[in-house]
Specification:
alpha/beta; four-stranded antiparallel β-sheet; 14 helices
Length: 358
């Protein structure tokens, strides 16, 4: 690494720590404050920073396949994280997963089928980018080299959004029909709603709910760009509106707050915040959120539980709990992706039917 880049890497780590905020947001802020850093230097500095965060527990001069080292050092992870993943998958698989999570994630977009076909978008991109259709999602396009999307005319026209293939497949679990009422209960910036909105054909209502007002307004901008019109934001303080929506939804998606273990390739700092105690608190919170979201599903309606976690504590075990605690019926097969399979992030989704009245 040249001295210029090395100096900025050191300067960044002088500013950032696990307690000072998310790695990606802090790095973006650093680059905004240092406009003299060119695009190639930014890429190199970012890669170095991310690699140092990913591999900080691996002893210098050692490699992950040195069997003399303890597993948590070999895959550079906190002891609690190693134990949690091992509990879900066994020692061999846990090593494979946590090793894979120390490498960059692929870049994938999802085309907007309401405005363009995938073949049409691939045709527009083929001379400018190294691209191919995704293997599983019918809407995805994989980019095999880094690209800057947000200034592209195709992005501004609402023809695509950046979204991992696994997230696209989670959205597919919401199998709505035109005229259905759907609530994205933990909507965030609206990525999942954007992915399934075309199925409504502009009929019915799509409600986006989140406890964070600011991020819902970001969702509103994205929906406008994608020309999705049959949506409503449901703010957390709109008690009357929320009450009027109970027992009326054909579908509710709960894309729940979770450990994020399936996305550590993109957010390597998150793994250093993982604790078993924190996981227990998350499991408890998730059950509370699910119970509240369930109140909006009408009899015969469906609720989809989704996480970006690879841990059974937040996935299979939670679904078992929901089925028994709420008298629900599991519908179809669960969707589960692991980060070493097909390049996707590690996500989970299961559909449950409300078979009794409350």
């Amino acid at each position: 690494m040249n001295p210029f880049r090395e100096r900025h890497v050191r300067a960044f780590f002088d500013l950032w720590s696990l307690d000072s905020g998310p790695l990606d947001k802090t790095l973006q802020l650093y680059f905004r404050q240092h406009k003299a850093i060119g695009s190639k230097d930014r890429v190199a500095i970012s890669e170095t920073v991310y690699n140092q965060v990913r591999w900080q527990r691996l002893p210098e001069g050692k490699n992950p396949f040195d069997e003399k080292l303890p597993y948590p050092e070999r895959i550079s992870a906190p002891d609690d994280l190693w134990e949690a993943v091992k509990r879900s998958y066994g020692e061999k698989k846990a090593f494979e997963l946590l090793y894979t999570l120390n490498f960059p994630a692929p870049t994938t977009i999802r085309m907007n089928p309401a405005l363009i076909t995938r073949d049409e978008l691939l045709e527009k991109f083929k001379d400018r980018f190294d691209v191919s259709p995704t293997k599983i999602s019918p809407y995805g396009i994989a980019f095999h080299k880094k690209a800057v999307f947000f200034g592209l005319p195709e992005f501004k026209a609402g023809w695509f959004e950046v979204q991992d293939e696994a997230s696209q497949m989670v959205a597919e679990k919401v199998d709505l029909k035109p005229g259905d009422w759907v609530m994205d209960y933990c909507a965030g910036a609206g990525g999942k709603t954007l992915a399934f909105a075309h199925k409504s054909q502009g009929k019915g209502q799509l409600y986006l709910h989140d406890i964070r007002k600011k991020i819902l307004f970001e969702a509103k901008k994205r929906l406008k760009r994608a020309r999705v019109q049959n949506t409503q934001l449901v703010l957390p303080d709109e008690e009357k509106k929320l009450k009027g929506l109970k027992r009326r939804m054909d579908w509710v998606l709960v894309d729940a707050p979770c450990s994020g273990t399936g996305t550590y390739r993109r957010n390597p700092d998150m793994k250093w915040r993982f604790t078993e105690e924190g996981l227990k608190d998350l499991v408890k919170l998730q059950r509370e959120i699910f119970g509240k979201a369930l109140e909006f599903v009408k009899p015969g309606g469906k609720i989809v539980w989704a996480t970006c976690s690879i841990l059974q504590d937040e996935n299979e075990e939670q679904v078992d709990y929901f089925l028994k605690a709420h008298g629900l019926k599991l519908e179809g097969e669960v969707f589960k992706s692991l980060p070493e399979e097909g390049g996707m992030d590690g996500l989970f989704a299961a559909t449950m039917e409300v078979v009794k009245t409350f």
